[in-house]
Write a structure and sequence with these properties.
Blueprint lengths: L1 H5 L5 H8 L3 H13 L3 E3 L16 E3 L5 E7 L4 E6 L5 E7 L8 H16 L6 E8 L2 E2 L4 E4 L4 E5 H9 L3 E5 H12 L12 E6 L3 E7 L2 E4 L18 H4 L2 H10 L7 H8 L3 H25 L3 E5 L1 H4 L2 H14 L5 E4 L3 H19 L10
Parallel strand pairs: 3-6, 6-10, 11-14, 14-15
Antiparallel strand pairs: 1-2, 3-4, 4-5, 7-8, 8-9, 11-12, 12-13
InterPro entries: ArsR-like_HTH, ATPase_NBD, ROK, WH-like_DNA-bd_sf, WH_DNA-bd_sf
Organism: Corynebacterium callunae DSM 20147
Family: Belongs to the ROK (NagC/XylR) family.
Length: about 375
């Protein structure tokens, strides 16, 4: 499914070569995907290769269903519908603050937003995915301090409302998963290059993808002392957007958002110094994470990188000092791209892991 989804047209022999699976196994898998309406043959593009069965190309079929994806933010949330290729069919921003509403009320607004997007679309909804800050249990129960949530069973609510499977994940591994979903699978004889995703926004953390999928790194390395007065605090507490702005306010500089602080820093050297301190400490945490996993690529995501260009340069310079191995740096440049990537990843997670499990049951 992954190979066909990312490719144009492939023949079965190419799938045998790409996956390392036997011809009968590939044939059975392709037949099952065709019966599910996910894959189709293109006899009009058949390639003649001499005697024997002709090579009929395969491609992704027109999407038989839709997937909903949500990325929950502190002040607003992103909702979108995706087809099986991952193309955005419809999207909207829910201008409701999860932090200012009680969880039940917010989830009601969220479900109403999904319902509005699906109105008029004839294809069935077969799954919904949610990416959020904080910690998420395997059952989809969320605890997130920036949202004021403690043990909120959002997966249960969504499953009950829409009668489809609900996938809930932390935003950081969701963004890492989006990188994995968009990349061609290596040949079975070759290891999957490790990609490390480092996120700094409403929360701070890192996740990586390898042969086993996506894994979340444990607590980031404790920060040292600086003008930010973060000694003894975890990076998650001190360097998230709200934690950072709180440290900055202790220094007598007040800003409602990171973007506002960056504007202040254009004419305020102290504010600029604090932003650079944060970038330096983030680079220290990222370098320690890179030392653990030795990634080929480091993906930077979150407002700490997208909204503070000077801080991004400070981060890159400090990272080079602390981690001298060759590594490709890649930036997800905007908040919208971050949220769309996370929402798409959780929306399509079941499709790419267990595509046949989503086939609607007939009565």
């Amino acid at each position: 499914m992954h190979h066909i989804r990312l490719g144009q047209q492939l023949i079965r022999n190419e799938l045998v070569e790409a996956t390392g699976l036997s011809q009968p196994t590939v044939t059975r898998a392709v037949t099952a995907l065709m019966q599910a309406g996910l894959v189709q043959e293109r006899p009009d593009l058949t390639l003649s290769s001499g005697p024997g069965r002709p090579n009929i190309p395969l491609e992704l079929a027109p999407s038989p269903w839709i997937h909903a994806g949500v990325a929950i933010g502190t002040k607003s949330s992103y909702i979108a519908l995706f087809d099986t290729k991952g193309r955005t069919l419809r999207e909207t921003i829910l201008e409701k603050s999860a932090a200012d509403l009680d969880p039940d009320t917010f989830i009601e607004h969220l479900m109403a937003g999904v319902n509005r997007l699906t109105t008029g679309i004839e294809l069935p909804l077969v799954g919904i995915g949610v990416a959020t800050s904080g910690k998420v249990t395997n059952a989809g129960v969320v605890t997130a301090s920036n949202l004021g949530w403690d043990g909120v069973d959002i997966a249960g609510r969504l499953n009950y409302q829409f009668s489809v499977p609900a996938t809930v994940a932390s935003a950081i591994p969701a963004i890492a998963a989006s990188e994995l979903q968009a990349a061609p699978l290596p040949h079975p004889d070759q290891p999957t290059p490790v990609t490390l995703t480092f996120y700094a926004d409403d929360s701070v953390g890192a996740a990586y993808s390898d042969d086993l999928g996506v894994q979340v790194l444990g607590p980031l390395e404790t920060t040292g002392g600086s003008d930010l007065d973060t000694l003894g605090m975890s990076p998650e507490a001190a360097l998230s957007t709200q934690g950072f702005l709180s440290r900055v306010s202790d220094q007598g500089i007040f800003a409602e958002s990171l973007g506002e602080l960056v504007k202040i820093a254009a004419t305020n050297d102290k504010a600029r110094k604090l932003l650079d301190d944060r970038a330096t400490l983030l680079a220290h945490a990222a370098a320690a994470a890179a030392q653990q996993r030795k990634p080929a690529t480091l993906v930077l995501a979150g407002s700490a990188f997208s909204e503070d260009q000077k801080g991004r340069s400070v981060f890159a310079a400090q990272l080079k000092k602390e981690y001298d191995a060759e590594i490709e740096l890649r930036l997800i440049p905007t908040h919208r791209e971050n949220t769309r990537a996370a929402a798409r990843a959780v929306a399509l997670d079941r499709l790419l892991n267990e595509p046949l499990s989503l086939v609607p049951k007939t009565s």
